[in-house]
Amino acid sequence: MALLETAKLLRVVAQQAERGDQECGYFLSEMIPMFWKTRDSIAKSNQTFRTNFSRIESAHFATGKQSPLRRMIHRIIKEARAERRVLQIASQIPESSMVKPNDRLLALPDLDDSEEAIDAWTNAVVYPRLRRVASRLRRHPIIGKLGKALDENGKFQISRIKPLIRQTVARIAALPLRYYFDIK
Questions:
Q1: Is 163 exposed, middle or buried (0-12, 13-18, 19+ CB in 10 A)?
Q2: 63 in any annotated domain
Q3: Three-state secondary-structure class, residue 19
Q4: Under a CB-based contact definition with an 8 Å cutoff, are residues 161 and 131 in contact?
Q5: Do 82 and 168 share a domain, yes or no?
Q6: Does a structural domain hold residue 180?
Q7: 35-60 as b/e, with b when 16 or more CB fall inside 10 Å?
Q8: Minimum mean pLDDT among 37-51, 82-96, 104-118, 121-135: which range?
Q9: What confidence category does residue 59 fall into, taking pLDDT thresholds of 50, 70 and 90?
């Protein structure tokens, strides 16, 4: 729990530094190089750090200017993963009636970079949830004007961007899981 609170605190420090707070900027300017310089010695003594640092450091995370469609897909996946985790925990509790079971979500494989997992998550979670908000997507100033989404009459058709949706799910699935920070 303390690590989650520390992660929250560091997010606040980073946000304040972005807003121009001098003390937070000074703190980060000292902290980041200190951790960067000690990464080798930490890696020598901590296997978890060594394996996760190399995966996370080499991963290509989305930039702050990511597309609105990617943000929506990321949010859908994040919410579905959280819901799935709650369902998995609740299924271990006898006679638990706090959570309505969702067998379809529980039956999904863990989201990873395998073709089966990407197809399953795209077809069972992401695409259906985007279809439910298709009218909102149609009115969106950027998504609604995607050339790939427009049919020959110039009308928005979500089915036309299903390959793009799947490709985005695949990119998100290829990223290493993070537990404390939402790296953009």
A1: exposed
A2: no
A3: coil
A4: no
A5: yes
A6: no
A7: eeeeeeeeeeeeeeeeeeeeeeeeee
A8: 82-96
A9: low
Task: Supply the range of the domain harboring residue 8.
Answer: 2-58
Question: Same structural domain for residues 21 and 54?
Answer: yes
**Does residue 54 sit in the same domain as residue 85?**
no
pLDDT digits (tens, 9 = 90+) for 128-179: 999 999 999 999 998 988 889 888 888 999 999 999 999 999 988 887 766 5
Q: Which of 14, 36, 58 is the last residue of a domain?
A: 58
Owner of token pair 């998100």: 172
Query: DSSP for 92-148?
Result: TSTT--SS---HHHHHSPP--SSHHHHHHHIIIIIHHHHHHTHHHHHHSTTGGG-GG
Confidence of residue 62 (pLDDT cuts 50, 70, 90): low
Low-confidence winner among 7-11, 79-83, 110-114, 179-183 (lowest mean pLDDT)? 179-183
Same domain, 27 and 116: no
Regarding whether 75 and 51 lie in a shared domain, the answer is no
Instruction: Choose the most confident range, by mean pLDDT, from 18-32, 47-61, 95-109, 169-183.
Output: 18-32
Q: Residues 122, 44: one domain?
A: no
Q: Residue 72's closest CA among 15, 7, 146, 11?
A: 146
Q: Which of 15, 30, 58 is the last residue of a domain?
A: 58
What distance in Å separates the CA atoms of residue 132 and residue 151, rounded to the nearest whole number?
19
